[in-house]
Design brief:
alpha/beta, 2 domains, eight-stranded parallel beta barrel, two-stranded parallel sheet, 10 strands, 11% strand, elongated, binds zinc ion
Length: 452
């Protein structure tokens, strides 16, 4: 192998998968994760020019195994797959997870109990919660699972609160208030910690929310959850409703009651609304892996975590997050779209000449962090992935040279020219097999020429 091949193969073999440096939450830099790892002179970070205040507390609640499985396209995972996902959620640093709605039937009770035992036996750090309608019939099985397994489970009681839902269901606010008082009171009496959820909060009247929140707090609820059930909210709306909830909690003299934000992404604002809610005073945010859920889904927890880490609002090692995304995709049959941010096939792939040339030049400078950042808003190594240079019709010769070097191929000019011409006449990026075929043909031609 010639010296240049050896040099660049070595460059391609750099360890891009080393763990993200971890630090205690107190020592997380205020600047972005990226700003902390690349020479600050090379990136002016407007994101921290006028930063949003860092929330004092950010708790992550995963809904993949409950709300996520309501996706009309999701296949129900086996119980072993659910346990595997639960372990990965714990590994990645999820704080709390919804493990089911036992009121939905005996089969859910059975699964929830198995998952609760898996948490106990696996000594997982994440805490469990279960969803329940504001019905004693839904709350009772949660209390029984707690008794049988010894695992504390938070009870998340939900009820529709918007006028449009009240009209469709023929509900009055008095009825909602009675259900709230009875259900929260019953759950608290059973020794359960309660989060009270108003469905469709982001389209509910303030006077209704005030009555319901106050009733829930007076009945013993420890948290209030604002649900953007139909993905209606904008960031301004999210901030407004969270601040309103805080004012109601404070007026009730219950400053220790926390606020949750549960978002959906019908308007593709799941992630940004979660950040806005945290800015405004929410301390726990919900999401599902890959954003799977009812209709087009929930806030994507994986992307929310990436953003929270990049902003320095949480401190987690995300190098196994890609494994979790794949596990959820495999278990539910929900594909990861090629252009899905961070975890999609194309997230760190480029076949464009200018982009690839910049990445390749960064490699040549013996600086993997530079190569990982020059054309990426998210460093691939943050999630255990790496940059990929492909060869296609938009490529330059540097793509070809670099691709061959990364595959340990000693290339001469004829080979590079041949593959480059093939790429220019193709309508798509060349597959590995296509490139290798061209190489074989180039070698065969060179041998014939030498023989002659
Ligand atoms: Zn939901």
């Amino acid at each position: 192998m010639p010296s240049c091949g050896r040099r660049f193969v070595a460059a391609c073999g750099w360890d891009w998968h080393r763990p993200v440096p971890s630090s205690s939450p107190a020592s997380v830099p205020r600047s972005s994760w990226r700003g902390a790892s690349v020479d600050k002179a090379l990136i002016y970070d407007w994101n921290v020019d006028q930063p949003s205040p860092r929330p004092p507390l950010v708790i992550l609640n995963d809904e993949t195994l409950r709300d996520g499985l309501q996706s009309p396209s999701a296949r129900a995972p086996s119980i072993d797959q659910k346990i595997h996902i639960l372990h990965l959620l714990d590994d990645i640093g999820i704080d709390t997870a919804d493990i089911g709605l036992p009121g939905a039937g005996a089969h859910v009770v059975r699964d929830v109990e198995v998952l609760a035992r898996a948490i106990v036996e696996g000594r997982l750090r994440l805490q469990a919660n279960c969803a329940a309608r504001t019905l004693i019939a839904d709350i009772q099985p949660i209390a029984e699972i707690v008794q049988r397994t010894g695992l504390p489970i938070e009870c998340c009681c939900f009820i529709g609160s918007s006028p449009i839902r009240q009209y469709a269901e023929d509900w009055t606010v008095d009825h909602l208030q009675r259900c709230t008082e009875e259900a929260v009171g019953f759950a608290v009496a059973q020794g359960l910690r309660v989060m009270y959820v108003t469905e469709d909060t982001t389209r509910s009247k303030p006077e209704t929310l005030r009555r319901l929140f106050t009733t829930a707090i007076d009945s013993g609820a420890a948290r209030i959850c604002i649900a953007d059930t139909v993905g209606h909210a904008t960031p301004a709306g999210a901030r407004a409703v969270v601040r309103f909830a805080r004012s109601v909690i404070d007026a009730a003299g219950a400053g220790d009651v926390g606020i949750d934000w549960h978002g959906h992404r019908d308007r593709d604002m799941g992630t940004i609304n979660s950040l806005a809610a945290l800015e405004a005073g929410a301390s726990r945010v919900h999401g599902t892996i890959l954003g799977i859920g009812e209709r087009v889904g929930n806030t994507p927890m994986d992307l929310l975590m990436v953003n929270l880490v990049l902003m320095g609002w949480i401190d987690r090692d995300l190098t196994r997050l890609n494994d979790l995304v794949r596990a959820v995709s495999d278990a539910t049959g929900e594909p990861v779209p090629d252009n899905y941010p961070v975890f999609g096939r194309d997230a760190f792939r480029t076949a464009t000449g200018v982009h690839a040339a910049a990445v390749v030049k960064a490699f040549r400078k013996n600086d993997p962090e530079l190569a990982d950042t020059v054309y990426s808003g998210v460093p691939a190594r943050l999630v255990g992935r790496s940059q990929q240079i492909e060869i296609g019709p938009m490529s330059g010769k540097s793509n070809v040279v670099f691709w061959l070097e990364c595959h340990g191929v000693t290339a001469d000019e004829d080979m590079v020219d041949r593959i480059f011409r093939r790429a220019k006449s193709s309508s798509t990026v060349l597959s590995e097999q296509e490139i290798l075929r061209e190489l074989e043909a180039a070698r065969a031609y060179a041998t014939t020429r030498l023989d002659a």
